[in-house]
């Protein structure tokens, strides 16, 4: 099966092409094509997984490697740069996750991308989104990008798919950024917000990507190859650790830090996380697929893929891994606290995603390779589940604001059930999936702490506190959304359970969110995942650190989660919020304000880069959303203007001046020519004329006159001659 | 074998041009001229395709399809033509863009069609002539020959509000200034290579082995900078670029396409064909100033492009940015330092591929601008919005070309940018670091100024409906426009994922060129 693995991304690509070129007018056929594409990819991915399991953990050390002739092949002098397919346990399990989640989300989208509205007679109409087919084309292309990234055998190839995903993310965040006047599924303000969010996402990640790009180039220069099997060898890693990029900094550290830049951008880590909450302007399946389950975890996947680099950097004494650990842990805590004070149902989940990605990054930073990878897989399932259930809620009530919800459990029982399953998994309640993976990360950090490691201690503390906040904000969300009485009667009255095509995928995801953790449940004696994925890593011969199950850590992590849930229940569950009531957290005063305003980070970015603002009273119109550029942006724009003015005035001015001087010179020449040169010629003519006129007077025709002149002349000549001779 | 293949390639458009003049006047003569010109121009394309894809040996570093005859015996001028991996793709691109330009123009040119199609075919002869010439004298003749038709294309068919007369004369004179200096250098090299008993040479191959002024650095520098200026103006390299936005904006759509797609390449082609092999030492000694000019072109070009409000001017300035990468690649390839042949070959491959890619991508973008202008009668970016919903096919095509232009992986521009940077970071790391800014600005320029303004937002139906009284009507791409752009879009994707299709050809020649100068 491995030999056909290259087809996995080809099927969705084919679906994309078919929809764009042939089926774009047929909505049903387009959706069907997209689902078929991902289904075929899924079948292949599952068989690849089974074959990989058959090979066992040794596959990590000797991964399947296949060169794809032609594709991205670059002759470079006397060498040839080739890319291909690489299957190792990490790729195999990620393929399983991506295809499963994608398939569920694709099916869900069939229903979600239809909009229901009620006309003036109270009749309900369901219409497809005006660009329904385009949506399925984009998500198919996205699936191609993600699957291609996973099976990449080469960092350059990985970067290519990485950017294709970035493109799809841009297109899908901005999916509702354009509309015709007669289309009413969105309002004008939303088009503007979506437009800004797309640009923000692309350019923010582009900053990270450019740093990654430079790291890629440096790695290529140093190793003369970018194939994983070639760069992750003892010899090459040794070379990277021994040679210095800057005084005191070995290449491996510099390159690892540059690659981290890409991961920070893509996986929305502090300080480049700002694009992800805004990305929620996209349709909810997009949020679930790209901005929760797959693309954002590509940054973590990249770190796992290039893990040998980080290990080598750590051995060489560089700070690369420490930076990874601290960035991750800080992001986990930072975003987790923000999530507590948000009212937008999707934004809470967005900050939660940022926080959970922080867990994964921190895990890799402290060397918990298996735990990081494991959390990547489990998180994808329950976060996709949460987003899709949130989408089901939004689809039902038509608003994102949790303050306008409440009491939805009666109207949407299935959605409520699966949402709670997802939330408990996220909070880390056993035996749901999130517990096992999160616990493993905490256990590893605890182990480091016990060895007296400061970084380990810092990471453990930050992650433990973050875990508490996770449980708390999920409980708050559940009670605000599903329990109590509806706070906005208009919205809640129209709420209805979503159609089968939407809740069936939810059920499947809920199944995985419940059971998937059991593939690596140490106390039950199952360590299948850890054994399969984490026994070996390319190019590193010492075995990876494995974390023994620690009942104390497990107990306290469950304890922390339960405390968070209990507190949530105390504040929001015991006495549900009624219409007009204030959020109980508001009594925190300044703390609430700071969290509510996301530590004013948007304002800081606003001062520097740009701020989005929407003055009240004009909601729904284009004018209601404006972008206020910050000083850096203004500086760039100003500088661009200065360059342009310089170009016009000085650079082009010189050219025009040269032309003007040339012309002036030619004018002068013409004048000189006319006055003097031509003047001389004319003068000669004039002289001749005048002379003639004058001389004609002596032509009298009388012989006497001529004789007088002749004799006078002869006499003068004789005298002159005599004078000359006498000298 | 095709006998006299390259001569045929040069002459066919000229013959076509003559026939265009001979088509009798009549009611249908215009459409006859158009269809004749389009069909006729396909012949060179087919011939060039046959030469490249069938007969051309990509692994041979020698000149192929060579022809050489004595032309002016008293000064040893020869009619010497031939192609190698450097020129073959550019010759092919010339024939392709000519077909597309003529095809598109046959729908949109209504005035003085006979003269237009005559000039266009004449231009093709000039451009192909430059690429196949191996004699500097011949090269110069074709170089100048290309100027004249372009001058008329801009001056006569330019849009009245864009000062076509001014732009055309600026283009003409500016290029001529450079040409004159080049001519002086050519003559100096001829005299230097002559001895008491044998005449000098204009032959580019011979000059590369003889290396005129090899022992006289001052004279070599003078000759180098003379030729450099001629090419730098054509590229155009900062600060010699200001003719470009004017000429581009004023030119009719197909003229802009050829200008961006081919004429700019004449400059960079000259860098690789003439300056690198004939003056390697001088080039190496002056790599830094040249690389700095390239850096300024890259960053400054992107910034100035960002300040534009006119769609076409923005694309024109983006050419300054993109052509800067070509010069950066060439500079990186010859820079002094410890880099080995592989590093240098990657840089030069990248530069040559970037030439081809820029021709494809920017050529397409100029068609795209022209298509919009035909409908809206304005190019002011602020006056659009919502076209992604209103005209989806146009939106998709603009999106693809824009992302290719900003260097999205999977599309052509990325491969060449990556290779240029891969080479530049190995030999000129500091310069390359600054140039990375160009990537970010490039993305901002295309996304923020073009896509956000044109495609996204709400389509203002009322305003455009009102405009319809003035003959303005926004509608999606018609069939002939899609046909015009399809080959270019196909090339963007093909080179983006399967670059070896062209890189194999380029790599052979860059190894050969660099093998001469790197120990």
Report on the structure:
The complex is a heterodimer of chains A (727) and B (519). Chain A is mainly alpha-helical and 727 residues long. Helices cover 69% and strands 5% of the residues of chain A. Chain A is built from 29 helices and eleven strands. In chain A, the strands form five sheets. Chain A has a two-stranded antiparallel ribbon with strand order 1-4. In chain A, strands 2-3 form a two-stranded antiparallel ribbon. In chain A, a hairpin with a 2-residue loop joins strand 8 and strand 9. The longest helix of chain A is centred in the last third of the chain and has 65 residues. Chain A is elongated, with a radius of gyration of 38 Å. In chain A, 53% of the residues are buried. Chain B is mainly alpha-helical. Chain B has a domain of 234 residues. Chain B has 21 helices and three strands. Chain B has a two-stranded antiparallel sheet with strand order 1-2. In chain B, helix 3 packs antiparallel against helix 20, helix 12 packs antiparallel against helix 13 and helix 14 runs antiparallel to helix 17. Chain B is globular, with a radius of gyration of 22 Å. The two termini of chain B are 37 Å apart. The mean pLDDT of chain B is 89. Classes of the chains: A mainly alpha (727), B mainly alpha (519). At the A-B interface, strand 2, helix 6, strand 7, helix 7 and helix 28 of A face helix 6, helix 12, helix 14, helix 15 and helix 16 of B. Strand 7 of chain A pairs parallel with strand 3 of chain B, so a sheet runs across the interface.
């Amino acid at each position: 099966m491995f030999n056909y693995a290259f087809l996995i991304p080809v099927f969705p690509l084919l679906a994309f092409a078919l929809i764009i070129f042939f089926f774009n007018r047929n909505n049903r056929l387009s959706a069907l094509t997209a689902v078929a594409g991902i289904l075929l990819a899924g079948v292949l991915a599952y068989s690849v997984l089974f074959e990989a399991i058959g090979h066992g953990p040794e596959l990590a050390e000797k991964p399947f490697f296949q060169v794809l002739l032609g594709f991205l092949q670059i002759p470079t002098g006397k060498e040839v740069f080739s890319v291909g397919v690489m299957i190792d346990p990490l790729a195999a399990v990620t393929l399983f996750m991506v295809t499963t989640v994608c398939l569920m989300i694709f099916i869900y989208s069939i229903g979600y991308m239809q909009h229901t509205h009620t006309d003036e007679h109270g009749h309900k109409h369901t219409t497809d989104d005006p660009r329904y087919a385009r949506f399925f084309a984009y998500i198919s292309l996205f699936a191609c990008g993600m699957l291609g990234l996973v099976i990449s055998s080469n960092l350059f190839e990985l970067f290519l798919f990485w950017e294709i995903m970035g493109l799809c993310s841009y297109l899908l965040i901005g999916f509702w950024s354009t509309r015709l006047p007669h289309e009413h599924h969105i309002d004008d303000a939303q088009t503007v917000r979506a437009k800004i969010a797309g640009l923000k996402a692309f350019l923010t990640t582009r900053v990270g990507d450019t740093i990654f790009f430079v790291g890629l180039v440096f790695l290529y220069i140093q190793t003369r190859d970018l194939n994983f099997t070639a760069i992750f060898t003892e010899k090459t890693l040794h070379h990277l650790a021994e040679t210095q990029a800057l005084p005191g900094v070995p290449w491996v550290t510099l390159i690892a830090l540059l690659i981290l830049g890409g991961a920070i951008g893509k996986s929305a880590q502090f300080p480049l996380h700002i694009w992800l909450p805004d990305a929620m302007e996209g349709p909810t399946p997009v949020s679930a697929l790209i901005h929760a389950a797959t693309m954002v975890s590509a940054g973590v996947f990249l770190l796992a893929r290039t893990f040998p680099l980080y290990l080598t950097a750590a051995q060489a004494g560089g700070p690369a891994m420490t930076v990874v650990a601290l960035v991750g842990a800080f992001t986990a805590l930072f975003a987790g606290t923000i999530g507590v004070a948000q009212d937008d149902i999707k934004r809470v989940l967005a900050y939660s995603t940022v926080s959970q990605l922080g867990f994964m990054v921190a895990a890799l930073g402290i060397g918990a390779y298996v735990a990081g990878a494991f959390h990547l897989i489990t998180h994808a399932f329950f976060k996709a589940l949460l987003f899709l259930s949130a989408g089901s809620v939004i689809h039902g009530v038509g608003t994102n604001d949790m303050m306008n919800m409440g009491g939805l459990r009666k109207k949407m029982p299935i959605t409520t059930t699966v949402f709670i399953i997802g939330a408990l998994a996220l909070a880390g309640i056993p035996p749901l999936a999130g517990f096992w993976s999160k616990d493993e990360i905490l256990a590893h950090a605890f182990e480091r702490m016990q060895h007296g490691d400061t970084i380990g201690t810092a990471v453990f503390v930050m992650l433990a506190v973050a875990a508490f906040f996770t449980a708390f904000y999920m409980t708050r969300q559940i009670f605000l959304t599903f329990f109590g009485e509806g706070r906005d009667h208009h919205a809640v009255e129209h709420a209805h359970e979503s159609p089968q095509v939407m809740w069936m995928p939810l059920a499947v995801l809920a199944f995985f969110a419940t059971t998937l953790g059991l593939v690596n449940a140490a106390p039950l004696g199952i360590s299948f995942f850890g054994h399969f994925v984490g026994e070996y890593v390319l190019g590193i011969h010492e075995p990876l650190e494995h974390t023994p199950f620690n009942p104390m850590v497990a107990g306290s992590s469950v304890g922390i989660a339960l405390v968070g849930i209990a507190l949530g229940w105390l504040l929001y569950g015991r006495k549900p919020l009624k219409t007009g009531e204030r959020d109980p957290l508001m009594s925190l005063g300044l703390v609430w304000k700071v969290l509510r305003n996301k530590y004013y980070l948007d304002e800081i970015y606003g001062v520097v880069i740009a701020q989005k603002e929407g003055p009240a009273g004009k909601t729904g119109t284009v004018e209601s959303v404006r972008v206020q550029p910050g000083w850096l942006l203004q500086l760039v724009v100003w500088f661009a203007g200065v360059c342009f003015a310089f170009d016009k005035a000085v650079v082009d001015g010189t050219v025009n001046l040269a032309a003007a001087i040339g012309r002036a010179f030619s004018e002068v020449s013409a004048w000189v020519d006319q006055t003097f040169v031509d003047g001389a010629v004319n003068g000669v003519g004039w002289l001749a004329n005048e002379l003639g006129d004058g001389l004609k007077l002596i032509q009298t025709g009388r012989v006497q006159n001529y004789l007088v002149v002749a004799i006078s002349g002869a006499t003068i000549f004789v005298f002159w001659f005599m004078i000359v001779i006498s000298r | 074998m095709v006998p006299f293949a390259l001569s045929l390639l040069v002459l066919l458009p000229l013959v076509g041009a003559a026939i265009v003049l001979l088509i009798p006047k009549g009611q249908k003569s215009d459409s006859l001229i158009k269809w004749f010109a389009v069909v006729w121009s396909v012949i060179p394309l087919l011939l060039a395709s046959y030469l490249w894809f069938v007969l051309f040996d990509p692994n041979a570093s020698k000149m192929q399809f060579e022809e050489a005859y004595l032309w002016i015996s008293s000064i040893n001028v020869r009619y010497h033509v031939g192609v190698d991996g450097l020129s073959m793709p550019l010759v092919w691109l010339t024939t392709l863009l000519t077909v597309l330009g003529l095809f598109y123009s046959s729908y949109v040119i209504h005035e003085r069609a006979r003269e237009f199609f005559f000039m266009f075919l004449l231009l093709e002869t000039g451009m192909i002539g430059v690429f196949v010439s191996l004699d500097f004298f011949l090269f110069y003749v074709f170089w100048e020959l290309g100027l004249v038709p372009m001058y008329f294309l801009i001056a006569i068919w330019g849009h009245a509000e864009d000062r076509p007369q001014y732009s055309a004369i600026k283009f003409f004179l500016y290029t001529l200034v450079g040409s004159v200096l080049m001519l002086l250098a050519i003559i100096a090299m001829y005299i230097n290579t002559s001895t008491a008993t044998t005449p000098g040479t204009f032959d580019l191959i011979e000059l590369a082995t003889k290396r005129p002024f090899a022992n006289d650095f001052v004279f070599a520098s003078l000759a180098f900078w003379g030729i450099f200026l001629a090419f730098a103006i054509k590229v155009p390299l900062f600060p010699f670029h200001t003719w470009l936005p004017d000429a581009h904006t004023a030119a009719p759509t197909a003229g802009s396409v050829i200008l961006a797609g081919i004429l700019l390449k004449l400059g960079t082609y000259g860098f690789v064909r003439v300056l690198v092999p004939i003056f390697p030492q001088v080039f190496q000694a002056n790599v830094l100033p040249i690389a700095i000019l390239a850096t300024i072109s890259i960053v400054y070009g992107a910034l100035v492009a960002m300040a534009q409000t006119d769609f076409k001017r923005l694309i024109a300035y983006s050419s300054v940015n993109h052509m800067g990468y070509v010069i950066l690649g060439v500079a990186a390839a010859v820079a002094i330092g410890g880099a080995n042949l592989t590093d240098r070959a990657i840089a030069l491959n990248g530069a040559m591929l970037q030439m081809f890619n820029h021709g494809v991508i920017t050529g397409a973008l100029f068609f795209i601008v022209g298509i919009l202008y035909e409908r809206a009668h304005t190019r002011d970016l602020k006056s659009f919005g919502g076209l992604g919903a209103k005209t989806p096919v146009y939106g998709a095509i603009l999106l693809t070309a824009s992302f290719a232009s900003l260097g999205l992986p999977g599309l052509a521009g990325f491969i060449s940018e990556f290779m240029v940077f891969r080479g530049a970071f190995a030999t000129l790391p500091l310069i390359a670091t600054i140039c990375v800014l160009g990537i970010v600005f490039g993305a901002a320029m295309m996304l923020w100024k073009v896509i956000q303004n044109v495609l996204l937002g709400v389509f203002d139906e009322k305003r455009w409906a009102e405009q319809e009284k003035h003959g303005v009507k926004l509608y999606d791409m018609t069939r002939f426009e899609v046909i015009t752009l399809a080959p270019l879009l196909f090339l963007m994707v093909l080179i983006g994922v399967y670059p070896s299709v062209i890189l194999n050809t380029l790599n052979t020649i860059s190894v050969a060129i660099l093998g001469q100068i790197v120990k």
